[in-house]
Amino acid sequence: MTQVPNITLNDGNTIPQLGFGVFQIKPEDTADAVKTALDIGYRHIDTAEMYGNEKEVGEGIRASGIPRNEIFVTSKLNNSFHEPDAARKAFDTTLSDLGFDYIDLFLIHWPLPTQYGGDYVSTWNTMIEFAKSGRSKSVGVSNFQVEHLERLAKETELVPAVNQIEVHPYLTNDTVRKYGRDHGIATEAWSPIAQGKVLDDPVITDLAAEVSNSPAQVVLRWHIQRGDIIFPKSVTPKRVQENFALFDFELDSDAVAKIDALDKGEDGRVGPHPDTFDYVG
Asked: What is the 3-state secondary structure (H, E, C) of 160-196?
């Protein structure tokens, strides 16, 4: 079986660098998709309260027959529950829906600086409670900008273990990634292929032909070599298998530089901007 590298987090825990994401997978399809991924060899599953499929993630993990302690599971706090008491109840619901007594990583899904009086600090302090109790082995954030991270560093006692942000060749997000690297925060890249937008780029297709791999494999391999943690999503078993086959080839420095050069900055963003995203429904 392919050996996926582990990344050591700032709290000493480790996370597989390659995982399986379940964003936009329908609940009725999630358990089978998770079991398929685990059968292929994935040992890292990324879900969220907002995805509405935590229960089915737990079902898929149990159906796999793989011991719970061999699978790394992430979920994220729903935007509607940032106030401390609401966050505590939401976390309890996550554990209940998954059917676990602990989770490996729990994240604040969005900073929501224009909501809750801009108070994501009290939310983060509540996350720290989950880590201290052992019910979340690690805690982190998602979509936090440098100024958000700096505020946590100034006003709280714990540095997030990870920051899950939009990263792909059209938005390399290097300023946030560098802050993470300099402060011991691992970067997880969501939308690693820009929702498919980069796969037809001539630079990517030419490189794929050169190394005899698919465009998606080339982009995902680029992430791996940059040190990003990734969790591509698919419900097609062949694609799930393909996305796992990233460790029998390597991109040379010239290829990496060509992909780096595709960065469009903010014009390349495919998701909402963390400074303005305010959905709490």
From this structure: CCEEEEECECCECCHHHHHHHHHCCCEEEEECCCHHH
For residue range 47-66, list pLDDT tens digits in order. Answer: 999 999 999 999 999 999 99
Residues pairing with 45 in the sheet = 20, 73
Give me the pLDDT at residue 281, please. 79
| pTM of the predicted model as reported, rounded to 2 decimal places | 0.97
Q: Of 109, 155, 162, nearest to 139 (Cα)?
A: 162
- One of 51, 120, 170, 179 is an active-site residue; which one? 51
- With a cut of 70, say whether residue 217 has pLDDT above it: yes
Q: How far apart are CA 94 and CA 58, in angstroms?
A: 10
Residue 60 is which amino acid? G
Answer yes or no: 51 catalytic: yes
146-155 and 121-133 helices cross at what angle (nearest 10)?
60
